[in-house]
UniProtKB/TrEMBL annotation:
Protein name per UniProt: ZSWIM1/3 RNaseH-like domain-containing protein
InterPro entries per record: Zinc_finger_SWIM (IPR052579), ZSWIM1-3_RNaseH-like (IPR048324)
PANTHER family: SWIM-TYPE DOMAIN-CONTAINING PROTEIN
Domain ZSWIM1/3 RNaseH-like: 8-101
Source superkingdom: Eukaryota
Amino acid sequence: MRKCKKYFQSAYCDIVFVDATYKLNDFRMPLYVIMIEDSLGQSEVAAICLLNSEERPVLQRLMKCFQKHNPDFSGIKVVMADKDIVERDVFKEAFPDASLLICKFHVLRTFNREITTEKMGISSAQRYVALEIIQKLVHSTSEEDYKANLKLIQTTCPRQILNYIETNWHEIRNEWILGLNYFEGSLMNTTNNGIESFN
């Protein structure tokens, strides 16, 4: 822990990546990895923790422990994670001055998992078209571009796809649309793949 603390205090205080994996033990207990990165793209693991659940009190305890051992945590500008609702709320509480970003890989994977023929009651062709436009939506370069791509979904895709986006994604678009302040403080990172490869 001392070595990780030294790295965090000396050079790594801008962006923190958080991810969990479940494939390392027979009980499927989540292993949380918190990784930090400097402006040269060098990363270090700041914390590893095996949790008995992902319930709010457990994650809050993890964040308190991280803050205790890393007193410079207030310098964190960006936290990148996935879209899990409990996680997001806990991170916002722990780092109120930091921007919360959703890993682009997780964004696209979630759309791919949720927009299916079975869940949406759509054809394979409709799904293919929707996912193609959603790729454009994620890579929108401005609010105007985002609105134009959303309009394209409205006019091209079944209504339930637009409903899904408006209900689950529209209000938090600053956290996943690449052209909407996504790169401010993120050191040009769009994914948690560094942690994925570490896992």
